[in-house]
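the two lines:
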Amino acid sequence: MRRLISGWRPALLLAVLLGAWEVYVDTGGADPLILPSPHAIAQSLYVDRALLWSNFLITAEEVLLGIFVAATAALLLASAMHFFVTLRRATYPLLIASQTVPIPILAPVLVLWLGFGLLPKLVVVALVSFFSIVVTTMAAFAAIDPDLLKLMRTFDASRWRTFTDVELPAALPGVFTGTKIAVIVAVIGAVFAEQSGANAGLGYLFEQSIPQLLTARAYAAVVILSMFAIALFAVLTLVERLTVPWALQPNGDSPR
Amino acid sequence: MIEAPPLEPRELGVTDGVHVESVSRTFAGRRGPVAALKGMSLDVSPGEIVVVVGPSGSGKTTLLELVCGLQQPDAGRVDCAPAALMPQRDLLLPWLGALDNATLALRARGIKRAEARALAGPWLQRFGLAGFEDTRPAALSGGMRQRVSFLRSLLAGKPVLALDEPFAALDAITRAEMQAWLATMLAQAPRTVVLVTHDVEEAVVLGDRVIVLSPRPGRAVAEVEVGLPRPRRRTDPELTALRERVYTALGVPQ
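prediction for all of em together
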């Protein structure tokens, strides 16, 4: 992604779509209680800003902590699986199988088990993020050229030295790739977890606003959630560019 | 005046040669076992440059890995002084600058980064890479990368260097330059060298001796003594005659 919003074309398209939506609702195409117009949502974003902000902070905490836990655990597990073939053979099929458990069903169970606080949300976010990060990190480990490892052996490098100097840096771009994929589903995971039992957060606010017919407020929460996911992706892209610039250069002959 | 390089291995001694004696090596292939080498013998005296040429798949890389101790023979005996490998592709680490890449072997031995850089710095200059100390591989030319790769293996401080088609990936002009350059560098920092290639001209330009391998399973079928003074000129009639001899031994019709 070169820039988050590259140029005027997508902006123009967005303006046209929003305009059509506005006209559709204003001319009685849909009941504003069911589908609020863009300007009503914008109004709610302003009027309810304090409420939205305080709930946003809760959700943001869940997502950021969850991603951090997932990325750390994924790097540790992928490293361990890279080191120990037996562990990889034992764990990898189970890891894939674990992804078939539907999180919307798991979330209420986790709330029942872990309570209404931060913990079950963190667990759900970490669970949905973990998989993609493990897979891309393992792929980065597997892509290391075996000749490079032979070279290190003729240099009498210890197994640990080879890991810290060659393999770990080579795997870092994989961690970034996986985390960028994960941030999008992480936000969805947080919302699911909040809807399964919470007393704060944007997912909770959304759930509360619909029966109160505060549809515009519910949509405002959705707008903030998407903006948050986009912002996270952009920040990660920036950090990636600063941390592993060599992995993004077309000419960089990375150790494959 | 260039002072004695700090990591030069001690003067090459009588034990710093390479002895490979009727070695066989077989791999499990998809359609049964594949014999890479069979009855392969090779003797390299300390400080000698021996070039092994052979058709693709004649077990050249297997031979080098045996010399480096990365594989064990199924039969026969390998008795070699410690060897450092220089792989076919440069395999530089893309996140490190040229100098840090060159010090990889030093760092592997536990030498601190600052000290390793201080040791390797003068070498990088001698290798014509002054000013590129912190340039990452992506910004270096193919020839420069290969020079960094060679320095990295040289600084491992092993008496034997095992070079696996070191210039195969370079364009013809750069390759010719690098061959001349390598000859100069080896004159300054003597090593026992086993170089495998399928480039016959490279073999006669660089080697003291050229060993010709048979097609798979590989074994030495001919030996050509080069014995010409250095620097050698590619157009030297004696050199071209030797080149023809190697081609004949490889079974290439003239």
